[in-house]
């Protein structure tokens, strides 16, 4: 998919999610037959219910991890969340930075920004802001943030090298990022990948774990740590549709597939 086409699809699909109302499970791309069609499997294995400051109405079920669990956010920190959606991770981060800190959410979709601002207004939060912008060209000053977060968003950015370059630029010296993302391990059968890439929020734009970690290193980040790695199971019915019985068994035995990882790195 061309970069311009992927960005257009992201803008359209996530605008639709922002305009939806109702339970998180109905909004989630990979739980909704209206979005993912045959790919009715969930990337959401981590649950927020026990997390302080979790607000269900701000959780559209579009994440693939809980990056705030591993981000080491401290009181007084200035935190940036990339692809902030309806504000879920921003509100969790706010509970960690306290009144002396600040949280900023950046999202590509105007409807998401509007939804997040309304959620913040309802709660009377004055140290959380949401702005519209492109992760590849953030409308933000350099050397500003202590921590950068992102949850299942960077896989949708066409130029990931540019994304991590921008993360480096906006982080303070000594600052760090912690992101959860969807990646590929080994070789995904092309027929399965082609089917998956039709749906924004599933595996569109996902690269291999090795490529992802390598571009982080090349950007200059140090102390890179993969905190969590979890396989996102592909339903057997989907495998049977595109693969022979022998190919299905070979794929299952290979250890290859779609994975969610949570990784951090420091700007030294």
DSSP helical segment count: 10
> Shape, please?
globular
* Arithmetic mean pLDDT: 84
CATH secondary-structure class: Alpha Beta
Strand content: 15-25%
CATH fold-level topology = Rossmann fold
The residue ranges in which pLDDT falls below 50 over 5 or more consecutive positions are 23-41
Determine the structural class based on helices, strands and strand pairing: alpha/beta
- The ordered H/E elements are HHHEHEHEEHEHHEHHE
For the record, the count of structural domains works out to: 1
Please name the CATH architecture.
Answer: 3-Layer(aba) Sandwich
The profile of the biggest β sheet is: 7 strands, mixed
**Radius of gyration over all CA atoms, rounded:** 18 Å
Q: Termini distance?
A: 35 Å
- Helical amount among residues, as a percent range? 25-40%
Task: Describe the strand arrangement of the main beta sheet, using strand numbers.
Answer: 3-2-1-4-5-7-6
What's the total number of strands? Answer: 7
Report on the structure:
- The protein is an alpha/beta fold and 268 residues long.
- The protein has one domain (3-266): Vaccinia Virus protein VP39 (Rossmann fold, 3-Layer(aba) Sandwich).
- The protein contains 10 helices and 7 strands.
- It has helices at residues 3-19, 24-27, 33-36, 88-97, 110-123, 160-170, 190-196, 209-219, 236-242, 245-254, and strands at residues 78-82, 102-107, 128-132, 145-151, 171-185, 222-232, 257-266.
- Strands 3-2-1-4-5-7-6 form a 7-stranded mixed β-sheet, sandwiched between helices.
- β4, α6 (160-170) and β5 form a beta-alpha-beta unit.
- It is globular, with a radius of gyration of 18 Å.
- It starts with a helix and ends with a strand.
- Residues 23-41 have low confidence and may be disordered.
């Amino acid at each position: 998919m061309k970069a311009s086409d992927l960005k257009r699809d992201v803008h359209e699909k996530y605008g639709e999610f922002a305009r939806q109302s109702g339970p998180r499970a109905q909004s989630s791309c990979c739980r909704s037959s209206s979005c993912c069609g045959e790919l009715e499997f969930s990337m959401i294995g981590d649950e927020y219910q026990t997390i302080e400051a979790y607000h269900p109405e701000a959780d559209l079920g579009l994440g693939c991890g809980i990056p705030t669990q591993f981000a080491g956010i401290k009181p007084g920190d200035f935190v940036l969340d990339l692809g902030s959606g309806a504000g879920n991770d921003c509100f969790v981060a706010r509970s960690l930075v306290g009144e002396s800190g600040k949280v900023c959410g950046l999202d590509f979709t105007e409807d998401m920004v509007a939804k997040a601002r309304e959620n913040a207004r309802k709660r009377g939060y004055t140290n959380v802001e949401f702005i519209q912008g492109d992760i590849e060209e953030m409308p933000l000053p350099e050397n500003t943030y202590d921590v950068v977060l992102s949850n299942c968003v960077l896989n949708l950015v066409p130029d990931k090298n540019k994304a991590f370059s921008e993360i480096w630029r906006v982080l303070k010296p000594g600052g760090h990022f912690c992101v959860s993302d969807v990646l590929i391990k080994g070789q995904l059968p092309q027929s399965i990948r082609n089917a998956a890439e039709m749906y924004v929020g599933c595996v569109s734009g996902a690269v291999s774990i090795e490529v992802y970690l390598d571009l982080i290193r090349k950007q200059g980040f140090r102390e890179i740590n993969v905190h969590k790695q979890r396989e996102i199971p592909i339903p057997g019915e989907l495998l049977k549709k595109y693969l022979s019985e022998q190919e299905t068994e070979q794929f299952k035995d290979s250890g290859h597939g779609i994975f969610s990882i949570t990784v951090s790195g420091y700007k030294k």
